[in-house]
Amino acid sequence: MKQIFVILVSAILVDNFVLSKFLGCCPFLGVSKKMDSALGMSGAVIFVMGLASAATWPIQHYLLEQMNLEYMNTLVFILVIAALVQLVEIILKRYIPSLHKALGIYLPLITTNCAVLGVTMLNVDNKYGFWESVVNGVGAGVGFMLALVLFAGVRRKLESCDVPKAFQGLPITLVAASLVSLSFMGFAGLAENMFK
């Protein structure tokens, strides 16, 4: 249980995919303009990361490793993630069309979101068990949500600031993203030292 909690806290705060590993920056910068779309995108990413972790673990351990095809895991994992994203898109289009429309092009981009592939590859590299993989996937998604929601708040605050002309637009967005990223460095060592 301690190991599961350490993995969860680490995935959310310490090893945040967006702010520590700089994976998934495209949706992070693109969807963080409005809080509604940030929350919707976050929910979709949590769902896809959790399901991708749950789906890729048995494929890795019972299929690829048994047949000595570990070198194929990147290709297979991308196909699994693409199928899960299509499932999410179908569900959103059917049941929450306003969110589907708000997410626009960013929803299919979850397929190519390197954070989703990164979490599945990290599960394999760390030799996590099934539940550890699922917790890491969900934790990474929650960490993505935390980063996206925080940054959406920062960007909303930036709209009311008097930004110098040279920094308006993308430059101030990147400066703000780097400052939010620096703030997460303060969590280094938290997960490991929590139970000492």
TrEMBL record:
> Where does this chain mainly localize?
membrane
Q: Could you list this entry's UniProt keywords, alphabetically sorted.
A: Cell membrane, Electron transport, Membrane, Translocase, Transmembrane, Transmembrane helix, Transport
* Transport is among the record's keywords: yes
Does ATP-binding appear among the keywords?
no
GO BP:
electron transport chain
The Enzyme Commission number assigned here is 7.-.-.-
One of this protein's Pfam families, by short name?
Answer: Rnf-Nqr
Q: What class of enzyme is it?
A: translocase
Chain ranges passing through the membrane:
6-31, 38-59, 71-92, 104-122, 134-154, 166-191
What membrane topology does the annotation report for this chain? Multi-pass membrane protein
According to its UniProt record, where is this protein located? Cell membrane; Endomembrane system
Q: Which GO terms describe its cellular component?
A: endomembrane system; plasma membrane
Role, per record: Part of a membrane-bound complex that couples electron transfer with translocation of ions across the membrane.
UniProt similarity note: Belongs to the NqrDE/RnfAE family.
Subunit relationships: The complex is composed of six subunits: RnfA, RnfB, RnfC, RnfD, RnfE and RnfG.
Protein name as annotated:
Ion-translocating oxidoreductase complex subunit A
Q: Which organism is it from?
A: Bittarella massiliensis (ex Durand et al. 2017)
Task: Give me the gene this protein comes from.
Answer: rnfA
